[in-house]
Amino acid sequence: MPDVKISPAGIVIGLAGILIMGVFGWLTFGQKEQQAAPPKLTQEARAYLGQLALADVHMQASESYVNARLIEILGQISNKGNRTVKLAEVTCVFSNYSGIEIARERALVVGGRSGSLAPGETKSFRLPFDTIPETWNQALPTLIIAQIQFE
After folding, report:
1. What does pTM read for this prediction?
2. Exposure of 148 by Cβ count < 10 A (0-12 exposed, 13-18 middle, 19+ buried)?
3. What span, in angstroms and rounded, lies between the C-alpha atoms of 89 and 107?
C-alpha cells in the first residue's frame, strides 16, 4: 500500500467543509421555531359578529415600486352594535381554479393607524398583498372576521 500523506492545511479545509455542511444542514432541516397560533374569537366576540358588516368589498391590482404585482382588497366595515371595536382582523382565504385553498393571509381592518370603530360608524379599509401564489384563481378571496377586541 502506498503511504498517503495529508497536509495540515488539507485537514483544516476538510474539517471546515464538514462544519459548514453541518451548519447548513441544521439551518435547513433542524428544529423549526413553532409559530404561535393566531388569537381565536372569544365567546364575546363570536356573539358580536353579527354587528360588524363588510360592504363594497372589491379588488384592484397594480404594480409595486419593484415591479411586483400588488393586489389590494378594498372595502368598508360598519359597526351596527353598541360597543366600540378596538381591533378587528380578517382572514383572507385565496383559492386556486379548482376551489382548493392555496393561501391564507390575516390582515387588520380596524385598529392600528385607522383607530377604533365606534358604534354606528363605518370605515374604509385597504388590504395589500404581494405574495399570493401564481396558482390563485384571481377571484376575490373569502374574508372571515377572525378576531375582535373591544375597548
Report:
1. 0.70
2. buried
3. 5
As averages over each run of 10 residues, the pLDDT of the chain (151 residues) reads: 76 84 76 64 92 94 77 95 95 94 93 92 93 91 94 89
* Nearest CA-CA partner of 49 in 72, 29, 77, 26: 77
The C-alpha cell that represents 112 in the structure block: 392600528
Strand order in the sheet with 85-95: 101-110, 85-95, 142-150
pLDDT of residue 4: 72
Domains along the sequence of the chain with CATH: 43-150 (2.60.40)
Which pLDDT belongs to residue 37? Answer: 62
CA 91 to chain centre: 8
3-class secondary structure, 121: coil
Separation CA 52–CA 99 (nearest Å): 27
Q: φ and ψ at 113, to 5 degrees? A: -65, -30
Q: How far apart are CA 121 and CA 18, in angstroms?
A: 63
